[in-house]
Structures
1.
Amino acid sequence: MSAEDETLALEKAESLARGAALKWASGVFCRPDQLKHLGQYRRRETQRNNSIQSRLKSALQSYLEGVDHGVAQLQVAFSEVRHVQQALREVQEIWWEGEGSLTKLQPISQLVMEHVQLSVAIQSLPYIYAVPKQIAETQELLESRHLLEAHVHLRELESLRDDVLYRLQKFRPSLDSTDDQPNTEAADLVQRFFAGVQGLSEDLGRTLSSLATSALEVARSDPSLLVSAIRIIEREEILDVEEFRGPVQQPWKPPGRPKHWREHFFQALEKGVWDRVMEPRLLWENLSAADIAKHLKELQGRVVEELQAMCFVLVPCVPPHYDLPRGVAFMCHQGIARHLRDILSHDLPHPALYHVLDWVTTVYTSEHMMGHPNFSSEIDVSELGPLIPPEMLEEQLNRYTRSIRACLSQWIHKALEVEFSDWLRDQEPDKDQDGFYLTTFQQIVMQMLMENVQLAAALGESLENRVKNAVLYEMQNCLVWLREALVKYGIEHMKDRTYPTYYTQYLLAIINGCCALRYNIRRELLRPLGALKRHASPLFRDIPSRPWLTGSDYVRFICDKIEDFSQYLCKARAPACQYLLAQTERMVAIEYVRALMCSKFVCRSPAERQQLAHRMALDAEELSTALHTVGLEESPLCVSLIHSIQELFALKEPSLLSLEVSGLMTAFPDVRYMG
């Protein structure tokens, strides 16, 4: 702060003080009778000023004394620093003068290092002499299955070996020397001397792996032995972790570390699990579908038995953090997945392939296998994932469909050959209970086709649709082959009018069979229509509604469903196709009108009622286009009915409503039953 600023600050402070004093005096001496106390006030203020001045002088004196003392200390410190600098310069000069003579001390340093090593060796001699005997004792303990005692002896031997190697590494030659050959030779000598210790460690590791492979048998017969093995593994795992957590720059690591015995334990456990589950092995010579089914059934039983034994026998012997049920479930899952890929890599007949697909999609995740109630609380099936990848499953479904088509074609040909031979026999055709001629051909064909469809339906909608398409395709081929057989049958009759003897009767039987075949096909095709009709109401549940009124895509979605369904119906021959299309149109009309009549939707204003009528007109146009697309040129029911109801909502004169309703009931008398 400058002198001018200080002067201004002092003047301001003085002005404030005078103002405060004047305010105080005017308050105290506001009446004449108070002037007699003026002397008393003057004495009190004089005493206060004197006290303040004395305190200020005392504080200033103390501050000045502190400054003097600090300056004196700084002078002393400065003098000491100069002495230290002088001493450091003298030490540096002495170091430079004696640097050349330090190399003469190298032999002494070497002797010191050798002395330390010899001292360590002398101190370790009693323990080193006992190493061969201790190795033999440890081997005997290991062979007699006293695993904990054997591990204690092994740790003592390993600690001694590691201590000797560490000391050799620690007291290596100085950094100025590049010759560490003596240390290397000494380390090699120690390694050779303690070679039996590493062998003991490997033997113990193999013993632990063997116990893990037969863990179930050991847990049943001698659980304490398995618990001892787990305790040893946990101890070694801790030592491995501590070793990994050591200094990053540590130049020496104990030999044989890390051992990874826990990892080896789980690998051996997985091998034991898979050996038990996959026993006996599947032989591919002359393998039939029944053999595949039997093998999968037995595999299912062994997996369930293995998982139950793991949960009830083995889990109490291992720490909870091993999460053994989940781990064993994954072991089984991965092993089964590999085994199934191996099975599917072979050229399986379609019955065997069906058993595999059924086992994968239905049995595996059911309560009879991985979802078994005895271990469902321990194992989450959803975590296991699919047994085979989705793309591989898709490939197998296509493979099964191709095989079914080939077999259907072969079966129909054989059935037709038998049928043709029956036409030529000298025996009247069979008759049904009504006295009509019939043949068994259509019954055999329909039973064959429907059995395959039912089997496919058990494996899911995807395979069912594929097999249905294959059945329709082969049915068309069947009709072509039947026509060719009839032409051949007629040619044989034209050669000799008396042969076959029952030519006319068999023609009637064939006609009756074709009619029955046509009826059965129509009945099977009507089932999807019935399913669509049962699911139609959810499609119309949002008609009418506020979102529908404001322009949603509900009707467009319904039209897309109609077009998708028509693509399925196109596989049927006329007149079944036209009949089903007409039924589709009727179902759409009924459900649309029922949705309108049963809804609780209320128009809030005449404008909203006009908006609803406009929306119905748009719906009628969309449905008309969709029905025209699927092959219904004129729509006598659906579109006309919707237009008629739309006109009711579009009325502006309420007095005409009863007349319009009467006209609607006359044009469409069945509309009263649609609600």
2.
Amino acid sequence: MMSLSKLLNLSDSLWYSTKDPCSWKGVRCSSGNSSVTGLSLSAFDLSNSNFLPAACKIETLQDLDLSNNSLSSISDEFINDCGRIDGLKLLNFSKNLLGGSLPTFNGFAGLESLDLSFNSLSGNVGLQLDGLHALKSLNLSYNNFTGPIPVNLRNPLLLEELQLSMNGFQGTVPHEIANYQNLNLIDLGSNHLEGSIPTGIGNLARLRILLLSSNNLTGEIPANISNIPTLYRFEANWNGFGGTIPSGITRYLSFLDLSYNSLRGPMPTDLLSGPNLLLVDLSHNLLEGAIPAKVSKSLVRLRLGSNRLSGRIPPSFQTLDNLIYLELDNNRLTGEIPHQLSFCRSLALLNLAQNDLTGPVPALLGNLGVLQVLKLQLNNLSGDIPSEITRLQLLLTLNMSWNSLTGSIPSSISSLQRLSYMNLQGNNLRGRIPATIGSMDSLLEVQLGENQLNGTIPSMPVRLQIGLNLSSNLLQGAIPETLSRLKDLEVLDLSNNNLSGEIPVSLTAMQSLNQLILSNNQLHGVIPEFKQYVSLNTSGNPGLKNKTSEKLARKKGRQNGVIIVVGVGAFLLASFIFFLLLFLGEPKRDRTRTISVQR
């Protein structure tokens, strides 16, 4: 240990202040401090691996954790020396800078856990691990391995955890994986695997977690997966699975994610009723039919968006006290929004956008005291915006755009002091924009276009950043100078209104503005000079003139004035000369006559 201390050259005084290694940081000893059994050098900022052979001189070593460092290689000397320690059970090189191919682990007769994740190892995984007879946990995730999934371990009955995600493994999920009867964790996500899921996986009676996400797997989901009583998490999203979802699949599950596939047909009636269900994500498939009415009270997140679901939203959702996220967007759901959703008091996100929902926005939604996101856009909702919605003090996003809502924007909207995004565009809203909107200091985007709002433009929140859209309304009066205070605003659209007066020169000082749309109003005067990167549209304002054309008009006026003055001067000069000559010529003729008479 003293030799190891010198090689490590650590700055931590705990490695030097005493000769008792059992008191050093990261050192674990047996009872009675008779021998060193564990060495954790995680996050010790190590980059030179010359100390590794010295660590292997500790014959009683059981755990060696070298994670979170900058080691770039594992020497053959380390493999040879540490491979002779039969009691070494754990070896962790995760989160280093290891590169090249996987070392061949000769020896290591008692090694149970090998973690090489989060490195840059590459190549195929063949017989390098063949000698690890006692291996229970193998983690090669987040590397650059290629080739087939390794299933040639000497003793398959011992392996409990197989983690190979975020690599470039190819081929199919091998049928031999069913021979590893003690597996409780399989993670093959984010590779290039093809083909179907072997039905033998359904026979892994101890499997708890099965992760197959982000591959190119096809075929149907094996029905016998529902027979694994220990399975609580199954994720196979972002693949190409087709067919229908097998009945009973959620019998034991807590987490099910089959999103971004091509699953078809109706959902099994028992799909959402599993007693342990916490999360179900079936979004972005081709599912049809109605949403099952029987829903587990334990559900926390339900995502069914971007399918072809039809029918009504089940009122039985009122029993979901634990539901935090409900996403049913982009389907073909009809009927009214059930007021029973107001009993889901834990809801933080409610997304019912892009359906065929009708009727009013339930005022009882104002009882969802922890709601942060409310998306109801692209439906056929009608009636007024209920003032009760403004009781949602934690609301961050409010989107009711592209419906048929009428009435005015509630004056109490300003009580939503945490609101960042407000989109009420594309409705039939009337009346004035509430003057109190300027006090909503958290707003980053306001979309109120395509309505029938009238009156003048009030002061707006100074933190607006993404966009302010008031286009296609009935707004009147001048463009307020106060808009120039929106220093972070990127897009300002005031087009298609009845605005009059001049464009305030102060708008040119808006530093972040890159798009200004003022078309089709009654503006007049000279257009100020904006920065070159600002996209400016002022068409449809006959009274507006460019500053350059104004200068040309003035220059032309001055030129015409000079021509007139010069012309008049020339005329006067010519007239003066003519009359002068005429005056001088008359006396000469008289003198001639006098001389001739005298003669």
